[in-house]
TrEMBL record:
<dbReference type="GO" id="GO:0005762">
    <property type="term" value="C:mitochondrial large ribosomal subunit"/>
</dbReference>
<comment type="similarity">
    <text>Belongs to the universal ribosomal protein uL23 family.</text>
</comment>
<keyword id="KW-0687">Ribonucleoprotein</keyword>
<keyword id="KW-0689">Ribosomal protein</keyword>
<dbReference type="Pfam" id="PF00276">
    <property type="entry name" value="Ribosomal_L23"/>
</dbReference>
<dbReference type="GO" id="GO:0003735">
    <property type="term" value="F:structural constituent of ribosome"/>
</dbReference>
<dbReference type="InterPro" id="IPR012678">
    <property type="entry name" value="Ribosomal_uL23/eL15/eS24_sf"/>
</dbReference>
<dbReference type="GO" id="GO:0032543">
    <property type="term" value="P:mitochondrial translation"/>
</dbReference>
<dbReference type="InterPro" id="IPR013025">
    <property type="entry name" value="Ribosomal_uL23-like"/>
</dbReference>
<dbReference type="InterPro" id="IPR012677">
    <property type="entry name" value="Nucleotide-bd_a/b_plait_sf"/>
</dbReference>
<protein>
    <recommendedName>
        <fullName>Large ribosomal subunit protein uL23m</fullName>
    </recommendedName>
</protein>
Length: 138
């Protein structure tokens, strides 16, 4: 039960550590064939499953700005691409602000945290109706 590594007659392998490692792991130089009955992985195309909600606040905005709420993981280029491709909006600029969820108390005196969200200020090339910008007071 002696673990003896038989060294090759060619001593150049001893000088190169990678070659020596390969020789010790596979001394005869044989490679195993990869055989599998499993099908190859197919490329999966992801569909954007993002939620964007129009947020109408009381703060006055410019005529060409719309405020949206979205997932905090989305980046500015993704948001811009989402709005241009799905809704056909022409955007000048996209500004974002991250908000953390608030801690609230439930009826059973347990605390929970509301969801984090990102507020998106989309500056359009055309003007927007005031209905989409702020809540009208009655």
């Amino acid at each position: 039960m002696n673990n003896i590594v038989r060294l090759p007659k060619n001593l150049n392998i001893l000088k190169d550590p990678k070659a020596f490692k390969n020789y010790c792991l596979n001394p005869l130089g044989l490679t195993a064939q990869k055989t599998s009955n499993f099908p190859k992985e197919q490329k999966v195309e992801k569909f954007c499953n993002w939620e964007m909600v129009v947020h109408r606040g009381e703060k006055p905005l410019e005529n060409n700005t719309v405020v949206l709420k979205c997932d905090p993981k989305l980046a500015k280029p993704e948001i811009k691409q989402y709005l241009t491709k799905l809704y056909g909006l022409e955007l000048n600029k996209v500004n974002t602000v991250r908000y953390t969820g608030k801690l609230k108390n439930s009826i059973l005196r347990k605390t929970f945290k509301t969801k984090d969200f990102k507020k998106v200020y989309a500056v359009l090339k055309t003007e927007v109706e005031p209905f989409y910008q702020k809540i009208e007071t009655m």
